[in-house]
UniProtKB/TrEMBL annotation:
The keyword Endoplasmic reticulum does not apply. This is Adenylosuccinate synthetase. Its cofactor is Mg(2+). Its EC number is 6.3.4.4. Binds 1 Mg(2+) ion per subunit. Mg(2+) binds at residues 13, 40.
Length: 427
């Protein structure tokens, strides 16, 4: 039985939440493997809209066990408020499992994220300010606090002291902020311990057993391929690996057990925060995509930068993730354009290049080479099969498939659960 990875093929916000939720009904476990509450996934079920940040989107499907893997960074206060928000709306969250090895975002990580951005000035990354980068930095520096530390008070104090030793010097001397008392942090963290204890489990063991027992396990990426710390547009990236390999390290399930990797791909492109974006539109078309697509961040409320579809990026996502399938989302947003530009290659310093430049300098200079595909005006939101789509919309999808290097197995024609055309099964 399959273990699937579902991830963003662009810069995030491709519609991963909807895609995960759609599969949720036929999946036994949905696992978040990286990132934290920097993510913002919108799921529309009937007349209800849910905005999820830290919890896997599978939490909305009864029968599906949601798992927060070891690769995720967990802000306990955000987690508990997200859980109580869902409970208040009648969603059962009791099946949630959290890895004891996941790292905790503490208030000092959030503070450091914000002061660092301020310090960077115009070189800032445009982070979500949720403490993601500093928490992963502590993990790699081996001064992080893990979920399991909540259950050993003396270890917790030792670790928080070690983590703050250096940071307090930096805070006071560089950022002119008051030092943070370790005891105060420990007291706050201990306040979460009892509320979280029941969810903590050996998720690696459980997930491997689940795959071996023939259960369907879905790994849900936060962010997208180009925000990956290794394969994205560094330094304008998040501090973890949303790419497919991250599903293995972030969950403890090995690559031989993954049967499918599905890339969620928007029919155009968006990005939040700073960094290069070759097909970005700063004109009326960009404004129209933002308005029609509702392109406003779920987490920070920032307007998303918008541009045309970029096939170079889609091909790159296929390569670095080993994608087997694409889920093409938001095709409906493109209805009404007479012709739709699609970036098929770049021009870098006068030369045409077909692949994403590995040099960041070249990528910053990359100019899109466009092909123009004929548009359509018919409403496609009621389409249930590929044949229901107007001929030009069919041709647009086929052209994207041809350029992107993996088959398009599903198409989103609206935000709702049922506004999807399934061409090939994911299972
Ligand atoms: P995620 O971060 O990848 O889960 O995506 P977001 O939730 O941040 O952004 C995607 C937005 O597009 C959400 O508002 C979804 O409800 C919406 N959406 C998803 N698929 C479609 C689609 O096929 N058509 C339209 N119009 N909206 C969609
Ligand atoms: P989902 O899961 C879009 C961006 C931020 C910033 C960079 C680093 O909804 O696709 P961070 O706070 O992670 O250190 O910020 O990454 N970013 C996202 N952009 N969607 C997201 O999540 C994002 N999570 C982080 O805007 O540019
Ligand atoms: Mg999002």
């Amino acid at each position: 039985m399959p273990a699937l990875v579902l991830l963003g093929a662009q810069w995030g916000d491709e519609g991963k939440g909807k895609a995960t939720d759609l599969l949720g009904g036929s999946v036994d476990y949905v696992v978040r493997y990286q990132g934290g509450n920097n993510a913002g996934h919108t799921v529309v079920v009937g007349d209800q809209t849910y905005a999820l940040h830290l919890l896997p989107s599978g939490i909305l499907s009864p029968g599906c066990v949601p798992v927060i893997g070891n690769g995720v960074v967990v802000d306990p206060s955000v987690l508990l408020s997200e859980l109580s928000g869902l409970n208040a709306r009648g969603i059962d969250t009791s099946k949630l499992l959290i890895s004891g090895n996941a790292h905790l975002i503490t208030p000092y990580h959030e503070t450091l994220d914000k002061v660092t951005e301020r310090f960077l000035g115009k070189r800032k990354i445009g982070t979500t300010g949720r403490g993601i980068g500093p928490t992963y930095a502590d993990k790699i520096n081996r001064v992080g606090i893990r979920v399991q530390d909540l259950f050993d008070e003396s270890i917790l104090l030792q670790k928080v002291e070690a983590a703050l030793d250096f940071k307090n010097q930096v805070m006071a001397k560089l950022y002119n902020r008051r030092a943070i008392a370790p005891e105060q942090v420990v007291e706050e963290l201990l306040g979460y311990a009892d509320q979280l204890r029941g969810y903590v489990a050996d998720t690696t063991l459980l997930l491997n057993n689940a795959v071996d027992d023939g259960k369907v396990v879905l790994f849900e990426g936060g962010q997208g391929t180009l925000l990956d710390v290794d394969h994205g547009t560094y330094p304008f990236v998040t501090s973890s690996n949303p790419t497919a390999g991250g599903a293995c390290t972030g969950s403890g399930v090995g690559p031989t057990k993954i049967s499918r990797v599905i890339g969620i791909l928007k029919a155009y492109t968006t990005r939040v925060g700073a960094g290069p974006f070759p097909t970005e539109l700063l004109d009326a078309d960009g404004e129209a995509l933002r308005r029609i697509g509702g392109e406003r961040g779920v987490t920070t409320g920032r307007d998303r930068r918008c541009g045309w579809f970029d096939a170079v990026i889609a091909r790159y996502a296929t390569r670095v993730n080993g994608l087997t399938d694409f889920f093409l989302t938001k095709l409906d947003v493109l209805t009404g354009w007479e012709r739709i530009p699609v970036c098929v290659a770049y021009e870098v310093d006068g030369k045409r290049v077909e692949e994403l430049p590995y040099s960041q300098t070249d990528f910053h200079h990359a100019k899109p080479v466009y092909e123009y595909l004929p548009g359509w005006t018919e409403d496609i939101t009621k389409a249930k099969s590929f044949d229901d789509l107007p001929k030009n919309a069919q041709a647009y999808v086929k052209a994207l498939e041809e350029m992107s290097g993996a088959r398009i197995s599903a198409i989103g024609v609206g935000p709702g659960r049922d506004e999807t055309i399934q061409i090939h099964s994911f299972l």
